[in-house]
């Protein structure tokens, strides 16, 4: 995932478009034999690599059977593959491009899951990118398609367009003012869901929430996009209003909360992932509102991304048993904040 | 009170010796008429000012009736007078020397309360100083004295020598390891008491405790001194052992607690007295154990002294209604720690 600032970067962290596709005349992954699934892997790889598109040689093929647990975890933390995909020891893999903006998962729930992730609110660009990969694959692969139901998928919620569009939003002001529930309700009324990410169920870590369409049937891709975009913009507008409101009348309590969070992140000797995410959320709000001076939001975004166990091991040396991970996380956070 | 480092300054903050004396043939303050008490004030002032001692012109006379509430509060926070003394609107006062190490309260519970405070563990010096004032007063005043009971005082616990010796100790390691109760018990066995200061009853603020003799009868001044000194040295030794133990095996939890406390003090936008005292106690331990580098204990001592409401108003501008006192306290703490 790319975490550089994009459109509406103060609130929109990233946009993800996913397209689900399946091979015609091949059983869905959960019931198919390994030989059939190995063939799916082969055909998808061939379709990408043999295509005439300039992007074809930007992809690396990652075969699940060849990955260590740490490598799998790292790809999951980067949102490039799903935990589900790693359950399969063989006959599954992913094609990932060099910039890590495009991932094509093979034999997850569906035979093919195209996924594009871009920073900020970038629904059009992310959809265009995913759509191009879809076209490229369709040159060589015949997809399971029904005139009435559209693209066929393992789970009925993905029938039709097979498209899910989601935007990851940072909503600290909504969380601080207890407005999350009301946003969840509003989103539901428009056929969208909002879920906390990095947490379980709707619980959130670091006030990060993902807004996405619930259904992919009965609407065109364009309609889905416009709907997700409109509701997301509404949520962003509300979050901005609440941020402004929070800092009206020189609110010392909220300033205090922000500066203390900054102080703890700059001085803690050990810190777990949950607390880090919460404090980073608060200082991200502080940096956006100008309470913390000279702190780039990009630095905070980088931390939000890199403090997860597998990725952290990439940026700082960690004991094999991970006994010292909270100490190393604190060290890494300090090094970035003081850089 | 002087808060500069003294003997055993890592643990002993200050030493206080108090001598209670009363005029012969004058009723104790709680029952005496104002005219008699005004005469006591006059006689004590004359005794000090007319004495041949070089220290006689180092004293200022402070009359309770002339003080504002803020001035009274400030003297109390400096431990130069007691809250009791301020209850009297007239016929009461104090002679305080320029270095603020000596205070002679007039018409508190007793007619005369000589009090000397020195930094660190300095029982001999503080007693010598108080004893000199006692001699000086005795040149001109006849004290109430009984051959059997010794010096007579308003409260029987002060009979005999009229002497109370106390040492203020910083005991964060004992507090962290839950050893305070056992020290209280041990002290009691030796006829001493340990009380939390700045708190109510035995509760402490900032892990500061005062150890002192319970009785002043049946022992000479020297015996009292040696007893208080021996027990205090035992407590200091135990606290040092516990500090060492806490940091054995590179204890990351305690290091984390220290550094987070430092971070909060350096970044908070508002902070109340109780939390400040607690965090200052923890960083004082951290500075002593070398966990926090380049932070002089004197700076922390100065903060522990100055963050109390009346004294704080002396070092930083505070709204008259004291609405912003927690904000100003945070500002002051940051300015000292960053200086």
Please work out how many helical segments of chain A DSSP would assign: 12
- Can you identify the CATH class of the largest domain in chain A? Alpha Beta
- Structural category of chain A: alpha+beta
User: How far apart, in Å, are the first and last alpha carbons of chain A?
Assistant: 23 Å
CATH homology superfamily name of the largest domain in chain A: Glutamine synthetase/guanido kinase, catalytic domain
Rg from alpha-carbon coordinates of chain A: 21 Å
- What is the chains' assembly state? homodimer
Which CATH architecture of the largest domain in chain A is right? 2-Layer Sandwich
What's the order of the H and E elements of chain A? EHEHHEEEHEEEHHEEHHHHHH
Largest sheet of chain A: 8 strands, antiparallel
Structurally, the number of domains of chain A stands at 2
Count of individual beta strands of chain A? 10
- Biggest interface pair, residues each? A-B, 17 and 18 residues
Shape of chain A: globular
Briefly characterize the structure.
The first copy, chain A, has 339 residues and is α+β, with helices and mostly antiparallel strands.
């Amino acid at each position: 995932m790319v975490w550089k600032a994009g459109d509406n970067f103060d609130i929109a962290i990233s946009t993800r478009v996913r397209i689900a596709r399946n091979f015609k005349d091949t059983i869905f992954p959960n019931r198919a034999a390994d030989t059939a699934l190995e063939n799916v892997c082969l055909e998808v790889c061939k379709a990408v690599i043999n295509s005439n598109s300039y992007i074809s040689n930007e992809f690396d093929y990652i075969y699940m059977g060849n990955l260590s647990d740490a490598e799998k975890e790292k790809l999951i933390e980067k949102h490039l593959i799903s935990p589900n995909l790693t359950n399969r020891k063989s006959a599954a893999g992913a094609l990932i491009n060099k910039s890590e903006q495009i991932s094509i998962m093979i034999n997850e729930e569906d035979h093919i899951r195209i996924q594009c992730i871009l920073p900020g609110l970038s629904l059009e660009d992310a959809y265009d990118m995913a759509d191009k990969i879809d076209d490229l694959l369709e040159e060589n692969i015949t997809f399971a398609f029904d005139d009435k139901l559209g693209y066929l998928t393992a789970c009925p919620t993905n029938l039709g367009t097979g498209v899910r569009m989601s935007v990851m939003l940072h909503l600290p002001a909504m969380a601080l003012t207890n407005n999350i529930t009301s946003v969840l309700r509003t989103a539901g009324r428009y056929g969208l869901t909002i879920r906390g990410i990095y947490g379980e169920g709707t619980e959130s870590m670091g006030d990060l929430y993902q807004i996405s369409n619930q259904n992919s049937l009965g609407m065109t891709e364009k309609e889905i996009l416009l709907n997700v975009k409109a509701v997301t913009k509404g949520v962003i507008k509300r979050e901005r209003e609440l941020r402004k409101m929070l800092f009206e009348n020189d609110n010392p309590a909220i300033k205090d909360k922000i500066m203390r969070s900054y102080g703890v992140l700059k001085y803690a000797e050990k810190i777990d992932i949950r607390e880090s995410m919460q404090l980073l959320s608060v200082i991200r709000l502080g940096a956006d509102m100008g309470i913390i001076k000279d702190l780039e939001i990009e630095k905070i975004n980088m931390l939000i991304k890199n403090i997860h166990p597998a990725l952290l091991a990439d940026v700082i040396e960690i004991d094999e048993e991970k006994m010292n991970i909270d100490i190393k996380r604190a060290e890494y956070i300090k090094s970035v904040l003081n850089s």
